[in-house]
Structures are given as C-alpha cells and as structure tokens.
Amino acid sequence: MNLAPYMAQLNELADPAAVEKMQAYHKVDRPYLGVANPQINDLTKAWRAELSLTDRIALADALWQTDIFEARVAAAKLLTQARLRPDDEPAWQLIQSWVPDFDGWAIADHACMAAQKRLLADPQRLDVVETWTQSGELWSKRAALVATLPWTKQNNPKPEELDARERILGWAAGYLPVKNGILQKAIAWWVRDLSRHDPVRAAAFIEDNRATLKPYAIKEAARHMPDFPLEAPVAADVTAEDEAPASDN
C-alpha cells in the first residue's frame, strides 16, 4: 500500500494554527496536523468507496504506524462499518493489535468504535476483550468497556445478550476499587448508558459498588435516573428504648 497519496490528502487540510491547541487539549506527545474531524470523515468516506477491503486494511495499518493523530483517527474510521465483506477477521485482528498502543481517550475511542462493529458481528470475540481487562495498561482496561458499549443499549435483550451484559458488568466491578479517574469515568459511562435501557440493573450496580465508586462516578452513572439517591441512605438511630426487650407484663 502506497501511503503517500493518502497522507498528501491529509496534509492538504492541515491547519498549523490548530496544532498547538490540539496538543494542549489531548496532552499526548505525538504529531498533529490540525485537521478537523468532519474533514477526516469526508476523506475516509471517499477512501472506503474506492478501496477493496484488503486495501482498506493495509491502508489503515500504514496510517496507524505513522503515529500522527489524524492518521490514526482515519485508520479507525476506515474500519468502522457494520459489515466488512467477504471476511472481517483480518480487520478485527488489526483493530485488536492497536489496543496496546492506546495512550489517550480520543484515538482510543475512535478505534473502540471500530471494535464495537466487529464485536457485534461476532460476540464470541468478547473472549479477546476479556484479556484486555487483565492488562497492566490502563487504556487497555478502559477499552474493554468502551468497545462493549453496544451491550448497554438493548431494550429487549436476548438471553445471550443479557449474559454478555452481566459478564461486562463483572469486568467493571472487578476494576474496583480503583482510584484512577479514567477507569472510574469509564465505568460510570457504561452504567449511565445502561440506565437508559435498564435502569433497575444500573441502579443495582451502583448500590452494589457504592463503597468503591467515587462520588463523581456515582453522579455520572445516575445522571439519567433523577430519583436515584446519590448518597447512601443513613440508617435510623436506634435508641435504648428501641433495643429494650418487650415487657412480659
């Protein structure tokens, strides 16, 4: 795959004035071009239309290896599609190979959106995602939750979808207690999205893990449940009179 003409198209859209702002915002030391997300969308839409799946995968791989912010975003967008025919396994293999490279939320979230499509196409791939939860890398752990967000969205989940949902909630609970705000926010995000479709289960998760969820995570997880108590109910005081045994008289 000749990367040069595709990078030339990205470079044509570069905005040097935006680079410093992007560096300050993302706080990750890598090259930035200053290309806006809608512009990357337009490019990758055209590339998807003109390239075979094999060439798209090769281009995505080459773009990712540049470590340029916009190139990595474009790589993910090239593979964010519900159906990849005739065989999506090479795309899935490439996407999962990116996970150890995650070092910030923006690129990771774009790649996780591509992963979501491949997981929905074959939920057995959750076995691979579970290995991310055991990683020593924070961003890999977070990716396991972001990539599985589709399992928060079923209004009438099938038994196997409920099983997957419980499995993922188990991963989230397994991260606790964790002080790191990135993982706390990722857990809150997953439970917040779940609350739109299954508020009872979302509320139960918060209650079960209230002691180890940070207050800001509880608030975010319960954002769409206005009646949910953000603070644990205080047990009523028991007086000596309450504790005294009833008289036999």
Automatic annotation (TrEMBL):
Alphabetized InterPro entries for the sequence: ARM-type_fold, DNA_alkylation
Pfam families: DNA_alkylation
Gene3D superfamilies: 1.25.10.90
Protein name: 3-methyladenine DNA glycosylase AlkD
Lineage: Bacteria, Pseudomonadati, Pseudomonadota, Alphaproteobacteria, Rhodobacterales
